[in-house]
């Protein structure tokens, strides 16, 4: 539904990741989580996926227009929605270099990495500030996602190099772990 709404509103000559277009959309937490999860499950990486990540990263730091002015957009997410969002992003990152021949240029990889870092940092801060809101399964799934891309980890030596080869990341460019 989100992709359809976006495509219906976009002029043919307008870029999908034009911030003005995305700022007008109000995407509910469940819609956002479901969209990221669906792209990940299907292994699809269209331009709208990258725009959705960028939108998510930006909105996680802003005050909300949906519930009330004092809560952030991210605070409206249920714990399972946060966990599934993080899982979907991680699953996409793990498939990035094996995405069925789809070439992802370095600019899109950088956008994906920056967005992921912003989202993961905010999700980690929510878990730390509201640990009793999360069920063990939600924390477990989120920690799996973090560990799978080495978010918050720094592993020196051959273990890190081996993991980087498997995950398809370059630890030199990020200083070993996100």
TrEMBL record:
Domain of life of the organism encoding this protein: Eukaryota
Name of the protein described by the UniProt record: Uncharacterized protein
Species this protein is from: Proboscia inermis
């Amino acid at each position: 539904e989100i992709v359809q709404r976006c495509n219906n509103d976009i002029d043919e000559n307008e870029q999908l990741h034009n911030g003005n277009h995305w700022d007008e959309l109000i995407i509910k937490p469940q819609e956002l989580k479901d969209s990221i999860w669906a792209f990940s499950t299907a292994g699809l990486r269209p331009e709208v996926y990258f725009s959705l990540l960028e939108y998510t990263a930006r909105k996680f730091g802003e005050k909300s227009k949906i519930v009330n002015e004092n809560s952030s957009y991210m605070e409206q997410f249920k714990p399972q929605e946060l966990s599934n969002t993080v899982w979907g992003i991680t699953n996409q990152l793990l498939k990035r270099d094996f995405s069925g021949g789809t070439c992802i240029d370095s600019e899109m990889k950088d956008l994906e990495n920056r967005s992921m870092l912003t989202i993961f940092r905010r999700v980690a801060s929510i878990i730390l500030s509201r640990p009793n809101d999360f069920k063990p399964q939600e924390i477990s799934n989120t920690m799996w996602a973090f560990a799978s891309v080495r978010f918050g980890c720094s592993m020196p030596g051959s273990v890190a190099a081996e993991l980087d080869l498997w995950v398809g990341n370059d630890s030199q460019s990020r200083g070993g772990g996100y």
